[in-house]
Description:
32% of the residues lie in helices and 23% in strands. It is α+β, with helices and mostly antiparallel strands. It has one domain (2-159): 7,8-Dihydro-6-hydroxymethylpterin-pyrophosphokinase HPPK (Alpha-Beta Plaits, 2-Layer Sandwich), CATH 3.30.70.560. A five-stranded antiparallel β-sheet has the order 4-1-3-2-5, sandwiched between helices. The radius of gyration is 15 Å and the shape is globular. The model has no long low-confidence stretch (mean pLDDT 92).
Amino acid sequence: xxxxxxxxxxxxxxxxxxxxxxxxxxxxxxxxxxxxxxxxxxxxxxxxxxxxxxxxxxxxxxxxxxxxxxxxxxxxxxxxxxxxxxxxxxxxxxxxxxxxxxxxxxxxxxxxxxxxxxxxxxxxxxxxxxxxxxxxxxxxxxxxxxxxxxxxxxxxxxxxx
Length: 161
């Protein structure tokens, strides 16, 4: 059984799209753990601010099978196939970590984890003992080079509780 971490991001109808992604992930993976929601400015283009949330779960599916599910969910929620890397997103689901797998071709663990605070903060908030399987950095070490970002309880933001 592999422990995986998925990052969900959206800057268009953020709450509705993230809730839709979470509900679909639950259908595929069952029990999931959610981070707080992190709000950050768009990177590399001018656009609305993003919400990002991390999801931890366990699976017996392969990396390829997980990625197929993530692409299906993006498609179901209206993401276009050929959108530019730095552009507005209806929804973005990225597999960040698949157990301790290090695979350059699959970009695992995802390079964004050590480059962007909106990827690192969600993972580290729900898995503070995480150690990067490639460079052996702890969450504390990864986050010390990053600018803090706003966070909100996901229940307050997504479900108005």
